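Narrative of activities, Objective 1.

The group set out to show that a structural description can be obtained from nothing but a protein's sequence at a throughput compatible with the screening campaign. Below is one input-output pair from the validation batch, recorded exactly as produced.
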Amino acid sequence: MSMRVLLVEDEGCRTLTPIALLRPAFELLCGHHCLRARVCQAFPDASWGVSVRPWLQDVYREEHPDCHVNDDHWMHQDSVLVINGRWIPDGPLSRDMFDSARTGRTDDGQIAWIHLDRRQIAELQSDWDCLEDFCAPGPERPVGGILIRHPWDAVERNSRQIELDFSGAGVSQQPSGEHVCVLGDPCDVYVSERAVIDPFVVIDARSGPVSIGHDVHIQPFTRIEGPAHVASESRLFRAHIRAGTTIGPVCRVGGEIEESILHSYVTKYHDGFLGHSYVSPWVNFGAMTTTSDLKNNYADVKVPLQGRPVPTGLSKVGTFFGDHTKTAVDSMFNTGSSIGVMCMVLPDGGLLPRHIPSFSSVLYGTLSMSWTLESGLDAARVAMSRRGRALTPALEQQLRTLYELTREERERALARVARRKAM
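Output recorded for this entry:
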């Protein structure tokens, strides 16, 4: 029987809100790739499956028809390599890493992966938080990397991950053309042969590598500082891309971006600062939308995940945006903000609420429910069609299910607003 690989979500995935509300943790981007892509590269011929939260399974089946999604029959057929979906490894994976030991642990001793037989899979009953109980006996191997617990973990890790991933970037063409400037060692710059770089572009690799994927178009007066990665089919418009930034596939990017991850299909054509943030697909930023990523007193930042403040232990933290959120002109987000899925943000000139629950709106600076779910779905259909994608029935149902799952969070937030107004 061929190699069998199972990517799993444990309870830790629930604190990756809002960026993992519509995708498994192993689909989150860090460096050049998500964990699922890394695993598929290491095991191209493997039979693979996933164990994900129930409301994610139908869309995941649709997007990955070769995958066994929440398939108990497949899981129990034979031994399997179980990989924690929150693992961000130290760069590209190789099959040899998994063949030399029964268990792999991160730098801080957590289980990144473990080989289990059919009996152990049956005993677990998909309770992936109990993997530690099945570790002995058997050889263990330190494999590095981290298990992310919160959205800011991926952002904090991103600079290092870009550097680790760059070694596998491949053979590069050298940027050419009138007034295209490369600073630093040209060996630290990868440019796909299918990328287009216009004149008056600066690629600065003095502090880290820069990679530019296929069918990327970089317009004049753009500056990219490494470590940075620009994935396939993205376009940069007079952008200043600072160190530690990953721009995923099919993004439209302008303005200043620092140490941020744009997952895919993000539209940020215009000026405005985005720092230390994670932006999910189909987010659209109005002109001059800006995120703060540092308090005036340089204090550590707390982020309101599901409305409850969580200490980050970091002084530089931006905003975490869920899918399909739209911001209007001059939206200003405070340090350490959490913006849910399918939100509509209309500012009033001041700082916006730091917690905007999924499927809610901000009407002239005040949290409300003025943007209906149906309006959000209509906007999603239009936005996706503009990039050649469709809001499938499975995805629409997933959004409707998430709407109900996040109802309590919205009601709590609106109740707080009502209490403040009554005071």
